[in-house]
Amino acid sequence: LINHGIPVDLMERVRKSGEEFFGLAVEEKEKYANDQAAGKIQGYGSKLANNACGQLEWEDYFFHLVYPEDKRDLSIWPKTPTDYIEATSEYAKCLRLLSTKVFKALSIGLGLEPDRLEKEVGGLQELLLQMKINYYPKCPQHELALGVEAHTDVSALTFILHNMVPGLQLFYEGKWVTAKCVPDSIVM
Asked: Which residues cross the membrane (predicted)?
């Protein structure tokens, strides 16, 4: 998506905050660790495991609910970098507005009432926006590693704020195609 209405400087602040978070010492990141076994999926995590094809998934991530504001748990949001909470909160508001525009366009394109799809996924009150920041640490044996294995997102819409590093692939017409990196765009 281009001309999406999200300020480029805000997108850069979000990228920079994520980059700075993953640059912290492991002990600092662990303060925000999730606990999958206890059902606490929000927070910092690491996926360094073999997938079904025998390759290593090689990924650190930070996952959390960002919208609506009254359902967020700010206690698990990083305090460092200092701009993380403000930049992410502002970005979430912009994504919420973008979601409405996309749902409206899709609804009209399907011959439905303009607000139909958004209502179907919870409307203004119940639609949840979750954010996952992926970080791929340098792997000493890169030929054995894969960032994230092939998957289907379970969300109604997925917006990807990329960092101009190619790697995202889509399964299209029976083959894997690398997504184009377009400056200041969001992949949807």
From this structure: none
Domain that holds residue 165: 8-178
CB 10 within 8 A of CB 90: yes
pTM assigned to the model: 0.89
If pLDDT is split at 50, 70 and 90, which confidence band does 144 have? low
Identify the CA nearest to 97 among candidates 3, 2, 4, 1: 4
185 in any annotated domain:
no
DSSP single-letter state for residue 179 = P
CA–CA dist 2, 9 (Å, integer)? 15
d(CA 13, CA 94): 13
| Number of domains present in the structure of the chain | 1
DSSP string, 104-165: HHHHHHTTS-TTHHHHHTTHHHH--EEEEEEE-PPPTTGGGEESS-S----SS---B---S-
Is residue 28 in a domain? yes
Q: What is the pLDDT of residues 4-44, one digit of tens each?
A: 999 999 999 999 999 999 999 999 999 999 998 899 999 99
**Could you tell me the CATH number of the domain that includes residue 76?**
2.60.120.330
Residues 6+ apart with CB under 8 A from 112: none
- For residue 124, pLDDT over 90 is answered with no
DSSP symbol at 43 = E
Tell me: pLDDT of 50 over 80.
Answer: no
